[in-house]
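Hmm, what's this shape?
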Amino acid sequence: MRQAAADYIACGWALCAIAIGSKGPKTKDWQHKPLTQGSIGNHGLGLIHALSGTCALDLDDLQAAEAWLGVRGIELRDLLAADDAVKVVSGRPNRAKLLYRLPEGVQPPITKQIKQGGAMILEFRCASGSGTGCQDVLPPTIHPETGVEYQWAGAGEFTNLPVLPDALLEVWNTAMASSANMSGPTRNPLGVIVEGGRNLALFKLAGDLVSAGMAQESVLAALLKENEIKCAPLLPVSEVEAIARSAQKTSHGAGRLAQQAALDAAARAAVEADLMKQPDQATPADFVERLPCVLKEIVGWYQQRAFMPQETLKLPIALASSGSVLARDFVSENDTSTNMYCVVIAPTAAGKEAALGCVNEVLAVYDKARRAGSPSSEGGVLAALERNPASCFVIDEMGEFLKGVFDPKAAGYKAATGTVLMDLYTKGGSAYFGREYSKQTGRDSRKREDIASPCPSIFGATTPSTFYAAMSASAVNSGFLPRMLTFRAPDLIPESNWDQKNEPLPAIVCDWLDAVKLRLARHQKEVDAGGDLRRAQSHHPVRVPFSVDAKELRKAEMARIRDRRNSGIDELASNMISRTVENAARVALILALAADPQAVEVSIEHLQLALDIVNYATDTFATEIRKNLFDSKFAELEAKVLDYVKKYYLDERCAVTEGVLADRCRAYSSATLSQRKAVMEALEGQGKIIRTAGRNKGSWRFSPTPQAFQ
């Protein structure tokens, strides 16, 4: 930093600065010295000769200084928060300095101090009275009182100073031309207001005070004091009171104030209207309406059977039950089967039992051998799949099952259950080779367990507290959860269904199951007639490929997911979307065969609906994980940064710049650059913030979306 400052100063740029709260050093052994590159390197003293413009504002009296600039149409807070603001901070509270370049062709103006009550509140610092310049300090000079280095701050770069705004230059020139400096109520003979100009002078002053937001009583008090000090002869009190009343209504200041109030009201209304907009986001009920007829029948059947039917559970029940029926016997692209790991999360006594019962009953009507309970070990999983490679594990208290899988202290056989299920998820169309045991002959032998084309399905139900108690960052990153489709029901208990009936499976669904069996029987005859002895012992599923349009959509979606993962999103988001296209392919095959058990291809419409469903489930589950997973690497940082972005948007009615975030949001300022990048991209990927380009190249502004306030 020292060498950088030296190189920068040596360029000889015409500089000006606004210093905030700089009253100069008081320590005796600290003194200004002529600037040389050597002094910068050895002592860190950034003392600049011919420094073209510095001003200082004492933030101990910020209200008076802001009022002084505000009356002149300049908002100090906007200057400090500008995208290109270059600040120097000394470590003293409420002190800072803004640096600018002079506009091209402008001669260095004379340094001007603005005082109030004898204390300097604002200093425009540049040339001295003789025009030769003045001295100032730059980082990394050591401040004599705080003992810490001056530091660069603000959203801008000291190597690319912003040009001094025209409004500041105009105020500077006006201040130099005037002998008044707000130094207090001292009588100035040259400032006497004589008869003929008194009313206009007081009216203009009143307008400025009204524009600054001063109350009518305060305006009157200021006019009476001004009248007492400057007017000769004095105006009657009643006349001053009339001027104050008139200024509240007819002065230019009142007009500016009214205009600003109208603009503020319009901005507030726009913000509130924007935040009131609900994002156009699909719900499980919307997806149910788009399902094929036979799946809607399963939904209606669950609605009748459940004492407390949950709207959110309808979609996963229909998909899981039909997917378990079709699993292993039908495949699409890359031997993708319809087996899924589906989990529903709902409060206790809120419809989960009926959901489990419906899936079990559909399987029982189709093929009882496919039903399997909760596995207690890796061996239990393999035993069920040896019995039927298309087994569906219907698991009550799925959270307890996952605890055993993810708990670091769990017994080895329990932890291995999750590992084997994760491995088996994609083994459809190939052989699964089990473990090789040391003793494979004799009475106590244990042979390797091989399974041809295993396609296990899971349908589990759990309560939120049990499920999230089993979660951790390592569990999310293990690869098991991205394979799951998770549907979270609201915590509200649904209304009871007093017309509950234990109806049998609808005839339409039974007819569909029979049609599936019939197609499989015909297919097997075709395979047998082929006489392929090499594959006589192999499994021959029915192939239902994607249509040409569906293949193009699948390719485009895979590219989108790849680009999103490569864009630098955090590990949680990257892992959660890693199986999106694969899971959607499974759902698309279910939809195609549910619409027509004789379907010969998966259409683009079925794949699009499947992508919509899977993306919805993945995104909502990722949001739930972020809310409930307290050991997530960036969860705390994300929450704090998002809270600040929302608060700033509501308070200031605008997006927050990256510079303001770095200056004012402690969590963001203390994060590393890579963490800052990751957290903002994660929030953007979650749809909670919008990133727009700032005024300067490479700068950004961030605003919250309506979703961030839900």
Confidence is low (pLDDT under 50) at residues 1-14, 19-60, 179-190. The first helix runs from residue 2 to 10. The chain is about 45% helix and 10% strand.
